[in-house]
Amino acid sequence: MARNRIFFPKLKLQLGEHAWHNFRYDVGASVIFSFFNVVFNQFYIPMAIQQGASHIQVGFLAAAPAIGLLFSPLWAAWIERTSPKPFMIIPNLIARSLIILRLFSVRLSSM
After folding, report:
1. What does the chain look like in DSSP terms, one character per residue?
2. Taking phi first (over 0 means left), then psi (-120 to 50 degrees means alpha), and beta for anything else, what does residue 5 get?
3. How many beta carbons lie within 10 A of that of residue 25, not counting itself?
4. What pTM does this model have?
5. How many CB atoms lie within 10 A of CB 15?
6. Second label for 42, Cα 20 to 30 Å away, from 2, 20, 55, 71?
7. For residue range 57-107, what is the model confidence (pLDDT) as tens digits?
């Protein structure tokens, strides 16, 4: 708690107690997400090269974050016009089903 008073004293005075609590959790989540994003995303291109990806495939892989940012205003406008639930639920279901599918494939291959 003393550490929070050192880094953000004026900000805490401007925010209410609930907003300050949310701010601390958002900053922590952002730091953790950024750390894992940087650590894991650095390995995609070397793994693709090791697996024999062509120059154009490596280029697309390197440009994918920037391309996603270019399309994000369009996606944000689309999400605002509709219900955001499908945009959260469907990708999470796909990601979790891929994890489960991988679990079953490893389990079946070891038998």
Report:
1. -HHHHHH-HHHHHHS-HHHHHHHHHHHHHHHHHHHHHHHHHTTHHHHHHHTT--HHHHHHHHHHHHHHHHHHHHHHHHHHHS-SHHHHHHHHHHHHHHHHHHHHHHHHHT-
2. alpha
3. 10
4. 0.46
5. 14
6. 71
7. 999 988 888 888 899 889 888 888 988 888 888 988 998 888 888 777 766
